[in-house]
Amino acid sequence: MSITARNITKWYGEQKALDRVSFSVEKGHVTGFLGPNGAGKSTMMKIITGFLPPSSGEVLVNGLEVRNNLLEVRKMIGYLPEHNPLYQEMYVREYLSYVGGIYKLGREKKKRVEEIIGLTGLGPEQHKQIGSLSKGYRQRVGLAQALLHDPDILILDEPTSGLDPNQIVEIRELIRSLGREKTVLLSTHIMQEVEAVCDRVIIIHKGRIIADETEQSLVNLREQQSLCTIHTEFAEAVPVDLLRNLEHVKEVSPAGGHACVLTCDTDIREEIFRLAVEQGLTLKSLSLAGRSLEEVFRELTTE
Ligand code: ADP
Ligand code: MG
Fold first, then answer.
1. pTM as predicted
2. 91, 148, 199, 241: least CB-packed within 10 angstroms?
3. Does ligand 1 have an atom closer than 6 angstroms to the CB of 37?
């Protein structure tokens, strides 16, 4: 079960929303499509699901080119669109049964609707009108309709947006458990979401992939995170050259006044302290700061 995007470019009139995007996703992963608003995440997902044609390039789902195999591909994919359009006046169970009809589940339908209501925790709400549900439950209905035909691939566009913290935890757990058997691609602009749910990340910014899953996977980002940032402040001018010559120091950047920030591949606070003593300098502060995924992301997305 795989998704392969090859050189996808998408123009909306004069605006280029995707610029030669290529990636592939294999089974057994929850892959995060991470990027700020306007990055092109939803556009890419609409192209994968065949709701929008690319201007150039192609997407293969299990080896089938999407545009020429729309019906086949839609059977393999469950899609939770960004704005999750649901029929407000329909009742939860009635709606799912209606969706089951579209997928021609036949005699299986009743049983399947039952299963999905259980799986997505919709039991207590199944007899309510969709319009009367909380955002969290509406999102579950969206997930339920995406899962109903038991697709091997799930495309979830910002599945936790607008949910409260408890709902977020529940939906993330559900997605993680689904990821054990299915190929899941979810989009998010939230770093913590990637850390919490995904085991792979593709970072997209202004329509281009800026961190490729093979070269700069989440694992790599985590490794980058383990680089130490040390903040120091001296009473005197910063001994930049001496600091630069210390072992494990990658970078010394001035931070205003007599302060500077060191990027090191390990914690060398003791060496800095010793250096200050040897040089007769006064250290006013010396502290270790971790590097968050957020910072890594900001670095990758600012020119
Ligand atoms: P994301 O989901 O990452 O926030 P989108 O794929 O929705 O990004 O949008 C990518 C870019 O394309 C944005 O600049 C957006 O304004 C633009 N865009 C999206 N849909 C349309 C559309 N139907 N017509 C014109 N521009 C669009
Ligand atoms: Mg979007």
1. 0.77
2. 241
3. yes
User: What torsion do the CA atoms of 211, 146, 29, 173 make, to the nearest 10 degrees?
Assistant: 100
β-strand partners of 232: 260, 286
270-288 pLDDT, tens digit per residue, is 999 999 999 999 999 999 8
- How many whole angstroms from 82 Cα to the centroid of ligand 2? 6
Q: Which atom of ligand 1 has the smallest separation from the CA of 35?
A: 3
Ligand having the closest approach to the CA of 83: 2
Question: Is the shortest distance between the CB of 35 and ligand 1 below 6 Å?
Answer: yes
Nearest protein Cα to ligand 1, atom 23: 12
Query: Is a pLDDT exceeding 60 seen at residue 217?
Result: no
